[in-house]
Every structure is written in C-alpha cells, then in structure tokens.
Amino acid sequence: MAEDHFGEHVAEGYDRSAADMFEPAVVDPVVDFLADLAGGGAALELGIGTGRIALPLARRGVPVRGIDLSEAMVARLRAKPGADQIGVTIGDFATTRVEGRFSVAYLVFNTIMNLTTQDGQVACFQNVAAHLQPGGCFVVEVMVPDLQRLPPGETVRPFTVSPTRLGFDEYDVASQGLVSHHYAVAGGNLDVVSVPFRYVWPAELDLMARLAGMTLRERWSGWRREPFTSDSARHVSVWEKA
Ligand SMILES: C[S@@+](CC[C@H](N)C(=O)[O-])C[C@H]1O[C@@H](n2cnc3c(N)ncnc32)[C@H](O)[C@@H]1O
Fold first, then answer.
1. Gap between the Cα atoms of 183 and 186, Å rounded
2. Atom 9, ligand 1: which residue's CA is nearest?
3. Alpha-carbon distance 60 to 112, whole Å?
C-alpha cells in the first residue's frame, strides 16, 4: 500500500495553501476540458482529494467517482455541498477497483508523481485501462522534469521563494526521485512538509500507456490546449483506450 502523505495536518490546510489552484480561472478550463471528453459518460478521478475538480465537474452534470488514499482529505470533500453526488473509495489508485465503466479518468496536479516507483506508475495505467470503456480517455496533468534548469552537479531547484514561503525540489537523478520541501511561516510558527515523488518523462508515460493498451491522442502545455513545446514546464496528456 502506498504511503499517505496527506494526513490530518496537510488536509486541514490544503484548500488554504493551494488557494490559487481553486480560482475559477484555474479550475474552469480543467472542467471544460474534462466535461468535453466525458461526452455524456462518467468520470473517475484518481487522487480526488478535497474535490477541487470533482465538485465543479459534477455540478456540470458529469457523474463523478473518485479514489483517494487519505481519509483526512476525503473528509474535507464530504463536508462540501454537492459531495453526496460523488462516490469515493479509499485506497491506492494504482490498484483499487471501483464499480462502473468510465469515458474519462483523470489524474491532475502532478499526482502521478506521488507513486514513487516505476512499477506503481505502470500499475496505475493498467488500473485506469481496466476502468475505461473502449475509446475512453486517461488525462494526466504533470510537470516536465526540471532537469534542463538544474545546473550540473546540483540537486536543488526552488519553486517558491517569498518572505513567508519557501519551496524547493531536491532531485536524486540516479533514482529518478525528488523530494518536494515546503516551508511556511504563519503566526510566528514554521510549518515544514516534505513529500517524496518520482518524476516521470512524457515519453515514459506514453510507453506506460502503450503497455496498458492506450495510445497518445493529445498533448498540450495547458488546459486551454496551448501548444506543448521544448520550453513547456508541464503537460496535459490524453491517452485513448483502443
Ligand atoms: C496534490 S493532491 C490533489 C488533490 C486533487 N486532485 C486536486 O487537484 O486538488 C493529491 C491527492 O492524491 C492522493 N494520493 C496520493 N497518492 C495516492 C495513491 N497512491 N492512491 C490514492 N490517492 C493518492 C492524496 O491523498 C491527495 O488527496
């Protein structure tokens, strides 16, 4: 079973610390994109969390189900209006099965990298394929590993630097791992959270998809279908089940 890094302490502050990601300008294009792919069918969110995407997607009329490891995150989702429309199963999204056939499954906000082994990521694609109807799609939003910007011999890349927040990724290139460190000062207290990830290349994801019987249908650098280029820092990829 994967390790739960979203316990009570993280869950309690999640919506607050990720407030920017809950803005309509961020959420609406994601929901548009997914509702379009669902095309009248149902959606499955892996790592549904506190419902940032699932709740507005369900409000659009798309039947949504979710999987998440964290009871604490899901408790926040269940306390929100509209959550009674969304069935959630507690478990590891690499292996947990839920009832139903889906036209779209999605895994956003870098969460594929929470699976810290290649075997886990491969199993996740296979699990998704088992839930999709033929022609159904798997959508992943994830960063492009930042190695292009990592000077030779160095291991650390900052992603947030402000008087009250410091965030940096610590790369271990040999194991294709990184640890994201978050330091935040609030009310005179220092809050420190470090989460392990496995970074993963777009082409490696394409191969995982192929192993699971899916092929790449679209790759963009954002939810508004911005072109994916050599400079893109992240991608939104869609694989289709044969
Ligand atoms: C960064 S949060 C994203 C939550 C939500 N998708 C969003 O966009 O706000 C990652 C979520 O994935 C869940 N998660 C991480 N690894 C998981 C795993 N192996 N199986 C199931 N859930 C997992 C965490 O508990 C957490 O709720």
1. 10
2. 52
3. 25
